[in-house]
Amino acid sequence: MKGKVKWIDGAQFLGESGSGHTVLMDGPPDHGGRNTGVRPMEMLLLGLGGCSSFDVMSILGKSRQKVTDCYVDMDAERADGVPSPFTKIHLHFVVTGKDLKEAHVKRAVELSATKYCSASIMLEAAGVEITHDYEIRDAE
Q1: Which Pfam families match (predicted)?
Q2: Is the whole model's pTM more than 0.85, yes or no?
């Protein structure tokens, strides 16, 4: 896997993934940015959410669950001072579907957290406390 990040101006950077996709990162105005893109630490948090969501949906698909919508709300805490790494992150999955079995949703979230999500496992190894929960909603 490869990637490249190029400085644009001020606190703006353009990240390019090895697969050719780009994303603009920027800092807040009080740090020389113009607030035109996500912050790098926000990108890290979004990467965690994307990695874990990918796993959950894949596992639910393999267990033939009829998911119509899925999202994860994330709440992160960071240490005071510089550097200010993440100290705690909570992921709350909301899975909507028809006749979803709670045991399957629970297992998908647990497997992502403990076995499959590389981002989660890496952050936990670095000392970040990561917790997960879920709720199931019936599709109308």
Answers
A1: OsmC
A2: yes
CATH number at residue 105: 3.30.300.20
User: Percent of the chain having pLDDT more than 70?
Assistant: 100
Give dist(CA 101, CA 63) in Å, integer.
Answer: 10
On whether both 19 and 79 belong to a single domain, the answer is no
Within 13 Å, how many C-alpha atoms sit on residue 58's CB side?
A: 10
Structural domain boundaries enclosing 12: 1-38
Q: What is the DSSP letter of 128?
A: -
Strand order through the sheet with 129-138: 66-78, 86-98, 129-138
Let me know whether 34 and 57 are in one domain. Answer: no
Under 8 Å CB-to-CB from 93, ≥6 apart: which residues? 53, 56, 70, 71, 72, 105, 109, 132, 133, 134, 135
- Burial of residue 116 (CB within 10 Å: 0-12, 13-18, 19+) is middle
Residue 37 clears pLDDT 90, i.e. is over it: yes
pLDDT tens digit string along 76-102? 999 999 999 999 999 999 999 999 999
Pair (92, 64) in one structural domain: yes
